[in-house]
Write a structure and sequence with these properties.
Blueprint lengths: L6 E6 L9 H17 L3 E4 L10 H7 L1 H16 L3 E6 L5 H11 L4 E5 L20 H5 L16 E4 L6 H10 L2 E3 L5 H5 L3 E7 L20 H14 L2 E8 L7 H15 L5
Parallel strand pairs: 1-2, 1-3, 3-8, 4-5, 4-7, 5-6, 7-8
Helix pairs in contact: 1-9, 3-4, 8-9
């Protein structure tokens, strides 16, 4: 039997560490499609800003308000008995969203679907990109200046195929569970509540264009089937965040890609 959920669909349009403005445009486009399918409304939070190629320290300082807003939106939804469905330009939102989930849903696991580990620290990063350090920051591996952390042992990482050597060592030391076989997800989730972080670059770039493409990703049908299996394995889905929809300039293409992403995500929103 399908469960009825009361979704809170939010597009976080303000900038965190976005390199271009296309991420906030994509977040708004995807939120609109998801809301239409769920027969509900969606909210746009923050004002779209131009992207910038800034050092991680600058982004952390300048986007603090936007990052805090992300965690606040998740908290408002969960404490209000709703399912947060947060669309954002960049994974940096997880600096506050994941610790918030850990505090409010202490038994929950986090499914991290991303082509990248995002587990660098200020000591290991080669790019200096805040978005590549966010999961490590959320797990307390470096001090990002926000309250709360997520136990890295509660993270199930799937689809990461572009992971730096120093980052890989951090993941292993922290105890993040990295799965190569999708069939192992059910055992890893083990009927627990689940919060899903979905960076759309987990899809193959030939299927879905990405700002930081990594060949060898999932097909759209493969992602949809994976999330369908995840839903059956989880006790319940407590929230979803979707990032990195770099919206193309062409409006028709933008709608097509938003529909493709929504097709994959819908199993989580039953």
């Amino acid at each position: 039997m399908e469960r009825t959920v009361d979704p809170a669909v939010i597009a976080l349009c303000c900038r965190t560490s976005d390199r271009t403005a296309a991420g906030s445009v994509g977040a708004a486009a995807l939120a609109a499609v998801l809301a239409e399918r769920l027969v509900t409304t969606h909210r746009l939070v923050g004002s779209p800003a131009e992207g910038a190629d800034s050092a991680w320290e600058e982004d952390l300082r300048d986007s603090r308000g936007c990052i805090l807003e992300a965690g606040g939106q998740v908290e408002d939804a969960i404490t209000g008995g709703r399912l947060p469905v947060l669309c954002a330009g960049d994974c940096t939102i997880s600096l506050t969203t994941l610790p918030t989930v850990a505090r409010l849903e202490p038994d929950a696991r986090v499914l991290w679907l991303d082509a990248h580990g995002d587990f660098n620290t200020p000591q290991t990063t080669r790019s200096g990109f805040l978005g590549g350090m966010c999961l490590a920051g959320a797990c307390g591996r470096w001090d990002a200046g926000f309250d709360g952390t997520l136990d890295p042992a509660r993270v199930v990482m799937v689809g990461a195929r572009d992971v730096e050597a120093g980052e890989r060592a951090e993941l292993d030391f922290a105890g993040v569970l990295r799965l190569e076989r999708f069939s192992a997800i059910a055992d890893a989730v083990d009927g627990r509540p689940l919060y899903v972080h979905l960076d759309l670059d987990v899809l193959d770039p030939e299927v879905f264009p990405a700002r930081f493409p990594a060949p060898g990703g999932l097909s759209d049908d493969g992602l949809r089937r994976l999330l369908d299996e995840v839903c059956m394995a989880a006790g319940r889905v407590v929230g979803v965040e979707v990032t990195a929809f770099e919206a193309p300039d062409d409006a028709a293409d933008r709608v097509r890609l938003a529909e493709l992403a929504a097709d994959a995500i819908m199993p989580l929103l039953r």
